[in-house]
Design a protein that fits this description.
With about 1000 residues, the protein is mainly alpha-helical. The protein has 51 helices and 10 strands. Helix 39 runs antiparallel to helix 40 (about 805-820). The longest helix is centred in the last third of the chain and has 21 residues, at about 885-905.
Length: about 1000
């Protein structure tokens, strides 16, 4: 007989949800105006989330948007890494092939980790930035794809999401800046118990003002009645509506099930549980259909038809008949691609799976695994290894599950899915003792570990050890941010190694422990590195030995620079060369070159850093190149060569952004801010500091960005803002890992803020702490500005009687420190003379001759603000010693020059000091003779940055192109364009270009886009 297939359980009428649909449509409209939108849609299982997404997707398509759907996949207890993003990107590629190819150009090998169709994913380097690089590239890919056309990315069932998917979603929602993009994610709210891994993510996203969260409520009785009417295609009996509403409690899916059960004559009153109702519907199917339903329930969220056929072992006609019955009963549905089946609702699948007997479940998983081993082509390649590992694990077969878990961990590592790699490695460690000895003996570290070099053995012939798994798991935990778990594994490994004489492996684990301790803010990692050095001391050169020395040298460079750090860096380079460890060598040479400059060997040190940068770029060692782009211009800045540093920093930002080196990019932004500040380009310096805050993946580079903003705010007289930014910088830096390059600049700004607020005693306290900590070799670049700030504060407070107590001791300590601090470049020689002049002013012994020498020093340097400050001091000294008009005339010109710089920079305290001094001396600072304004930029009131933007507008560039060329965000470019239009009094970009052309602001070659 034929099985009936006409039962309709889904209402063709969309019921309720008007407010939620309005919110989604509003988000679509906002996205169309290039304002990215992020929404979270929560609700209990069966409440109607998928139906709402379908209705919204249909409406969005009608308006010309491209909708890419992706769902989280559950395979047994496992989630498939990045599954929803891979599916969504695959859909985007199908809908917008040219746009996606253009957006991914140059990064196909990295993005192939998410979308294998783009090409072969390279092995690449695995580090703590690897996952962040992939995330950054993915976010920018979506922004570029959504430049011209609205794109909706809908991710369903986040409650099943793997950790890597959760991390990527969080990153995406935090960093979306431009593009016509809507990101919509759904989850089951009733599944989110206290320990559910999605719970912290929801809490984090709730704090983002850019993310809107919707909660779907159950239907009211009226809405239930309308839903039943749609299902039955007739007006229902009110008593039936009351009964179904009471039993379903307004849950849309249960309303459907109860309505269909009533229409088909099922005795719904006999079942006390809705779960039983779902099973009653399954049990009403023919036996073959029930069997297929049980097989599909255990296979995962979706089961491919060919895999199902292999597991079911039914004749093809029988299988199709069974599937027809299950589909006709609205239990199973075909996948959108038409290559497999899934349950119409996950609640039904869960009910069927929960009803399986323990032995039945393991037997089904074994059959899935055996079928997949026999024919790997039964499932997509990117899911094959992960699913096989899950099936063997659920089959309770350690001999098969151990190597399968290890294979899956390697695939997870290649995709930068380090959270899944860690979970799989922990599973392998769990299975280790129960797996047969012959299975373990056949495993090789060369196949399953990628973290430490061979420790005195041939990895191709030496069996994989339990310690090898622990090493891989510790690094995976560090990379994915699970530092607590990684530290626990590392401690256990070191306990095991206490009973073994294996100093190289022990040293390697101690290096990992050092990094983890620092990452967890539990110390500076010094003791752990010292232990590692003791373990390798006296051993023959090896990669481990070279790596230990390189890490120790890098640590010392940041914490205790000096001869020991220099010696460790030299030995690290030597050992790395001896054993052919090229990456370690290049990394150690970055440290060595930096220490050379700091020690006074400026030219050779800079040349070494340049050579390493070029070699790293040529050899494709991106992380070393990123470090060189950070240190080389920083060292140029340290010797006062700011103008040389800026183009290298711009180049470094482009490089680190292209390779997703987020922290390296942030450090370069911070260094660029420092150089631009020195050159008197403060607006650009503030933008660069904001770039450091916006791009950093970890706290310390964000601290640098905040500190530079504090410095600019202080110089401009906004003391409250400076104090706020200073507090943020301190919070980012923390107290667990003090470094002179952070502590000394923080102390300098703290002294400046305290002095500006009239808190001289607090300024002295900050100075005392800094002097007590000392100035290690190479920290003079941070020491001189600090000493100058303290000396200036004392000199400015000389007339205050309340500051007299302790002044002499403070000045003596400053003078003593000034005599000891190095001056390895003309800039710091000028700072030394300036600091001594301030100390003399504090004692009341300053002279115009002393200040004249300081001005002469700074006139040779590219430091306009510093020059303006010392010119003001010289003018003050001249006026105090004036015996005739010559001194007054010279003071007038000095004050006029200083005031012009102060006005240009917005340095209000300096401008007010200049004006006050001129007023007291009855000096007129106007120019001696009126002269026409030759530069039209000045007459229009444009800033230097606005001039650059107007040049590009005149060349026909879009906001995005302007942003890319000037290394600013498109939003910032848009703000600059709006300001320019206002100052020019024009309505559009074309009129602005016409004004620029009429005034001859830019010669033709300046507008040539090919230059």
């Amino acid at each position: 007989m034929l099985w009936p297939v006409e039962t309709r359980s889904v209402s063709p009428v969309f019921v309720g949800r008007n407010d939620e649909l309005d919110t989604l449509n509003d988000a679509l409209e906002r996205a169309g105006a290039a304002e990215p939108q992020a929404l979270l849609l929560g609700g209990e299982a069966g409440v109607g989330k998928t139906r709402l997404v379908e209705e919204f997707a249909t409406a969005a398509c009608r308006q010309g948007a491209v909708v890419a759907l992706g769902g989280c996949v559950e395979i047994g207890a496992d989630g498939l890494p990045f599954a929803p993003f891979s599916t969504a990107l695959r859909a985007l590629r199908a809908a917008l092939p040219d746009e996606l190819a253009e957006a991914a150009a140059g990064q196909e090998d990295e993005l192939a980790r998410l979308l294998p169709e783009l090409g072969e994913a390279t092995s690449g380097r695995h580090d703590e930035q690897g996952m962040a690089r992939l995330f950054e590239l993915t976010a920018r890919l979506l922004e570029r794809v959504a430049t011209e056309r609205t794109v909706v990315v809908a991710l369903e069932d986040l409650h099943w999401a793997d950790a890597s998917t959760r991390h990527l979603l969080a990153y995406l929602l935090r960093t979306l800046r431009t593009g016509r993009l809507v990101v919509l994610a759904t989850y089951r709210s009733d599944d989110i118990h206290r320990r559910h891994p999605l719970r912290p993510l929801l809490a984090e996203l709730d704090r983002l003002r850019t993310v809107r969260r919707l909660e779907l409520a159950r239907f009211t009785r009226e809405e239930v009645g309308r839903q039943i009417a749609g299902i039955l295609a007739a007006e229902p009996d009110p008593a039936q509506v009351d009964e179904i509403f009471e039993r379903s409690d307004g849950n849309a899916f249960f309303v459907e099930e109860l309505a269909v059960a009533g229409a088909e004559g099922c005795c719904t009153g006999l079942t006390d549980s809705l779960r039983d109702l779902l099973l009653v519907r399954v049990e009403a199917l023919p036996e073959s259909a029930q069997r297929v339903a049980r097989i599909v329930a255990e296979g995962g969220s979706t089961v491919e038809y060919r895999l199902l056929a292999a597991v079911a072992q039914l004749a093809e006609d029988d299988l199709i008949e069974a599937l027809r019955a299950a589909v006709g009963a609205n239990l199973l549905t075909a996948t959108p691609a038409g290559d497999g089946y899934r349950f119409r609702h996950s609640l039904v699948r869960e009910a069927v799976a929960d009803d399986l007997l323990p032995g039945e479940r393991s037997r089904l998983n074994r059959r899935y695994a055996e079928a997949l081993e026999a024919d790997p082509q039964l499932v997509p390649a990117d899911a094959r290894v992960t699913r096989l590992a899950s099936y063997w694990y659920q089959a309770h077969d350690p001999a098969k599950a151990l190597p399968a878990a290890l294979d899956a961990s390697v695939v997870a590592r290649r995709r930068h899915a380090y959270s899944e790699q860690l979970r799989l490695l922990e599973r392998a460690m769990e299975l280790w003792d129960t797996a047969p000895e012959e299975v373990r003996a056949a495993l090789r570290p060369v196949d399953y570990t990628d973290v430490y070099p061979p420790c005195g053995c041939d990895p191709a012939t030496t069996p994989l050890r339990y310690l090898d798994l622990m090493a891989e798991a510790a690094v995976a935990g560090r990379f994915c941010g699970e530092r607590e778990r990684a530290l626990k594994i590392t401690k256990k490994a070191l306990r095991i190694l206490q009973d073994e004489h294996d100093p190289q492996r022990a040293a390697w684990f101690w290096v990992q422990r050092s990094r983890l301790v620092q990452g967890l803010a539990r110390g500076d990692g010094r003791q752990e590195l010292s232990t590692a050095q003791d373990l390798v001391r006296g051993l023959p050169p090896s990669e481990v030995h070279a790596d230990v020395l390189a890490n120790a040298a890098a640590w010392s460079m940041l914490h205790e620079p000096g001869p020991e750090a220099f010696a460790a860096a030299e030995r690290a380079v030597e050992y790395a060369r001896m054993v052919g460890a090229r990456e370690i060598e290049l990394n150690a040479r970055v440290t060595l070159g930096t220490l050379m400059v700091d020690a006074g060997d400026v030219d050779d040190g800079l040349a070494e850093l340049e050579r390493v940068k070029d070699a790293a770029l040529q050899e494709g060692v991106a992380h070393v190149a990123g470090r060189a782009y950070t240190n080389l211009p920083s060292e140029l800045e340290s010797v006062g060569r700011s103008r040389e540093a800026v183009p290298i920093q711009r180049e470094g930002i482009a490089f680190t952004r292209r390779y997703g080196l987020l922290d390296a990019e942030a450090w370069v932004w911070g260094n660029l801010s420092e150089s631009l500040y020195a050159l008197g380009r403060w607006d650009e310096a503030a933008e660069a500091a904001a770039g450091a805050l916006g791009s950093a993946a970890s706290a310390k580079p964000r601290g640098t960005g905040a500190l530079h903003l504090a410095h600019i705010a202080l110089a401009r007289g906004d003391t409250a803002e400076a104090a706020r930014r200073l507090a943020l910088a301190r919070a980012h830096y923390g107290t667990h890992d003090p470094m002179p390059q952070a502590q000394l600049p923080v102390a300098r700004i703290a002294i400046g803020v305290a002095a500006a607020e009239g808190r001289l005693l607090d300024a002295r306290t900050e100075l005392d702490r800094a002097l007590a900590a000392g100035f290690p070799p190479g920290t003079h670049r941070y020491g001189w500005p600090l000493l100058l700030a303290a000396a200036t504060a004392e000199a400015d407070a000389r007339a205050l009687s309340a500051a007299a107590d302790g002044r002499a001791e403070t000045l003596d300590r400053l003078a003593e420190t000034t005599r000891k601090l190095a001056t390895v470049a003309p800039l710091w020689q000028a700072y030394e003379r300036w600091t001594r002049a301030e100390l003399q002013r504090a004692r009341g012994t300053g002279t115009a001759a002393v200040w004249s020498d300081v001005v002469t020093d700074f006139e040779c340097l590219d430091r306009p603000y510093d020059l303006a400050r010392v010119r003001r001091r010289l003018a003050q000294a001249l006026l105090e010693e004036a015996t005739g008009d010559d001194e007054r005339d010279r003071a007038t010109e000095l004050l006029r020059l200083a005031g012009a710089v102060a006005d240009h920079l917005g340095a209000r305290p300096l401008a007010e000091a200049v004006a006050l001094l001129a007023q007291r001396a009855r000096l007129t600072l106007a120019a001696r003779a009126a002269r026409p304004v030759l530069d039209p930029v000045e007459s229009l009131g444009l800033t230097s940055r606005e001039r650059d933007v107007l040049r590009l507008v005149s060349a026909g560039r879009t906001n995005r192109q302007i942003a890319e060329e000037l290394f600013i965000s498109p939003k910032t470019a848009s703000v600059h364009v709006s300001n320019i239009l206002g100052k020019l009094g024009v309505a559009g970009r074309g009129e602005a270009a016409a004004v620029a052309h009429r005034l001859g602001m830019f010669p033709a070659e300046a507008l040539d886009p090919t230059r």
